[in-house]
């Protein structure tokens, strides 16, 4: 009776292993991958230049991440601009999978990665109490990534991740400045000089790193997580 | 015999632990085991019925819904991106003849032709955005999309309403008022109790947030019938002002990230509903 139980357990374990394997999409570890680009969603004329700079940065970072931390064969990102020009394609705003596929085919890639900054913004807040007062500027960005099979045109995997970066300024125990002995200890001021654009850049990079880690984990591709 | 079985169990356990994490050489993308039981679906371009079209809420919402559908591992999405064709425009073109006939009938004064026409049949949906369960969306269009995308079902979403608001947290106010009364009535606290109670009574909290109402529907491509639909209403909030004795916190107005959070929550809700109904066999009968 006990033997049957052990046998049953063994069968269950094997079935579980097979199921888990099937549940995750896989790509060959040495597949040729093209980073087509990261676009942005939402038309906002006033911030267009910042958004375009951030999407360029995100595209470069994605290629750098993959080439540094995986054994995947990454096609030259530099070719992308040339191909876009030759084909009369313009990648602005959000990037459609169909455009990504066209570029992937021209680059003879097996898979393409494209994505979007789904949303980003800056939150300002302040806190006051007798011990400290603090002003916080926090940039947040949500990044999505798609991995598309060039041969079949289907999206193999899709992930989203949030990135953030914040800076604080304020003072600690500034209430003591009102006392006669203020010259001995009059509180401490602290200030972070990071600009809002710098914070947004960090948030986008943080989100992109998170999304890349998530995508590679889903595909069960061995990778070295990048230091944030 | 016993040793053999134990050995088999240990090997199977080993396989279970090692197999899923390291086999990156496994060929081509296999869909999830459970997703393979689902029919092929395609996510259509979503529509936005609000006055904030410039925000591209429909695209953002579709992106978030697709990610969650894929993450659930329960749906086999044939084209996992909203396809480029604007379904509503195609539907309008499909019904153009209907409108022309109606115009002609109105001009001639014979309205019976209008009321007896296709448009006035109960089972016909007036627009894609208002299509309810059991109603038919132009089957010629849906079947064409289905064939082109190799999909049996079309998934479509509509953002019905998007709004923001600011309101006082009344629960917080009731709580602090109650605490103030207790403090003022504790014997022995005297003046401290009175001052503390007074300060607490002046405490207040103001929240601000986004509200989103979305409709989601699944259409059978072959005959254009809406087989499933759900309306979801979500609200995300954050503290705008918090004032309690010796502490205050203020946040600036809502921004894009708060609005994306609301869309994300709405996407979670609709996909949760779809998965639930899939489990209860209410979807894809």
**What low-confidence regions of chain A span 5 or more consecutive residues with pLDDT below 50?**
17-22
What's the CATH class label of chain A?
Alpha Beta
Helix content of chain B: 40-55%
Mean pLDDT of chain A: 80
Could you give the distance between the termini of chain A? 54 Å
* Uncertain residue segments of chain B: 15-33
| Number of separate strands of chain B | 7
- The CATH architecture of chain A would be 3-Layer(aba) Sandwich
| Terminus-to-terminus distance of chain B | 47 Å
Largest interface summary: A-B, 62 and 60 residues
Question: Helix count of chain A?
Answer: 5
| Largest sheet features of chain B | 7 strands, mixed
The number of distinct structural domains of chain A comes to 1
Number of domains of chain B: 1
Mean pLDDT of chain B: 78
Q: What is the molecular shape of chain A? A: flat
Q: Which range does the strand content of chain B fall in?
A: 15-25%
Q: Looking at the structure, what is the overall shape of chain B?
A: elongated
Could you tell me the strand content of chain A as a percent range? 25-35%
Largest sheet of chain A: 6 strands, mixed
**What's the assembly state of these chains?**
heterodimer
Provide a concise account of the structure shown.
Chain A is α/β, with parallel strands linked by helices and 228 residues long.
Give structural notes:
The complex is a heterodimer of chains A (228) and B (285). Chain A has 228 residues and is α/β, with parallel strands linked by helices. Chain A has one domain: ABC-type transport auxiliary lipoprotein component (Rossmann fold). Helices cover 39% and strands 30% of the residues of chain A. Chain A has 5 helices and 6 strands; from the N terminus they run αβαβααββββα. In chain A, strand 4 and strand 5 form a beta hairpin. The termini of chain A are far apart. Chain B has 285 residues and is α/β, with parallel strands linked by helices. Chain B has one domain. Helix content of chain B is 44%, strand content 24%. About 7% of the residues of chain B have low confidence.
